[in-house]
Amino acid sequence: MRRLAPMLAAVLLVAPTIATDASMPAGGRSSQIRERLSDANRWRDHVMVVAHRAGWKESGQTMRPENSKAAIDNSVSLGVELVELDVRRSHDGALVVMHDPTLERTTTCVGAVSDHTLEELRRCRLKVEASGAVSAEPVPTFEEMLTHARGRILVNVDNKLEPEDLPDIVAVARRLGMADGIVVKAPIWNEERLARTKAVLDRIGGNVLFMPILADDAVRDASFIEKVDRQVAAPAAELVVWHKDGAPGPTTDGGALFSAQARAVAIRNNTHLWINTYPITNRPEGMVAGGRGDGLAMSSGRPDEVYGFWIDHGVTIIQTDEPKALIGWLERQGLRRPYSTGS
Asked: Which residues form a coiled coil (predicted)?
């Protein structure tokens, strides 16, 4: 079993009683996931996994259409906690799930998503990027993807629109009775952006989990991190550690967002630290994870240098393109705790 990270040891000093599986909440698996997401200090010995673009890759290869029902099903079967879904609008304003602003890479159609009506988009079929294999799935609406995920897994909403579109996104979840099944987020880099986001959250109201995205090219002060956490009541903070072209090597300390002061803020506010280890196409390896990303973990055969490094620096949520490999590694380290099957 991997040794307890210093951050977990600090939590144990102030919260010695860790829940057993018998004390887990009743209900569907998604309610248990939400409980762990909402109580970071209680679950720092369990690392949660988020499937990027719903879980489209395995061993560096595209295996399923991204943002598809097939990807969600695979992520559920692996035991992933959250799937990321990218949300855009059609020409007639419908909320659809699509990463790119254009259609050609991932569907049988071409052109901008926003230039097509929902009816037109529904005639487009999702395809596997690497092979070009066409699936039976049309471009999905946000509503149908939420319905497909209901009760089985939480949805991490990557809003490709503006923060002011978040109320419409949440309204879909509320109409389905799934407000507790999503996590919405927005980048916050200064006081103005914090105020703008807070105004949107006030319009949304309660019972929806919100997570700030903080990047180390703009946010370096632990006091600002604490202010954001408290004002938006965040259960987690998605942290971006930039790895620029020409950098001499991977980060050795995680940078400002993983300083001792920043990690202390997470403990005080009962907040998870979240890192993204997925690659960015045609950019340096681990670009948003300080050079310590999925590619390094898979190619080196030493995932400890990626996932182990971030866990030792306080991370308890990892968003990845390699959920199968990551969960297997975490289980071997004793960093996954089973969910109750009773309800």
From this structure: none
pLDDT tens, position by position, 117-176:
999 999 999 999 999 999 999 999 999 999 999 999 999 999 999 999 999 999 999 999
pLDDT of residue 22: 34
In 3D space, the residue among 197, 158, 154 whose CA is nearest the CA of residue 37 turns out to be 154
Q: What are phi and psi for residue 267, nearest 5 degrees?
A: -70, -45
Q: Which residue, among 340, 342, 272, has the nearest Cα to 32 in the 3D structure?
A: 340
Q: Coil, helix or strand for 80?
A: coil
Going by DSSP bridges, is the β-strand pair 182-187/154-159 parallel, antiparallel, or unpaired?
parallel
List the one residue out of 2, 38, 46 whose CA is nearest residue 21. 46
Give the model confidence (pLDDT) of 224-261 as tens digits: 999 999 999 999 999 999 998 888 899 999 999 999 99
More confident residue, 183 or 28: 183
Which token pair is 317? 């949520």
Which segments of the chain are extended strands (E)?
A: 48-51, 57-58, 61-62, 82-89, 95-97, 125-127, 134-138, 154-159, 182-187, 209-215, 236-240, 272-276, 315-320
Q: Is the pLDDT of residue 14 over 60?
A: no
Buried b (16+ CB within 10 A) or exposed e, 22-41: eebeeeebbbbbbbbbeebb
Structure tokens at 40: 């970071």
Residue 320 near residue 50, CB atoms below 8 Å: yes
The domain segmentation of the chain, as residue ranges, is 6-86+145-332
* Distance, C-alpha 313 to centroid of its chain: 18
Cβ-contact 202, 174 below 8 angstroms: no
* DSSP reduced 3-state for 1: coil
- Give the Cα separation of 126 and 304 in Å (integer): 35
**Topology (CATH level 3) of domain 6-86+145-332:** TIM Barrel (3.20.20)
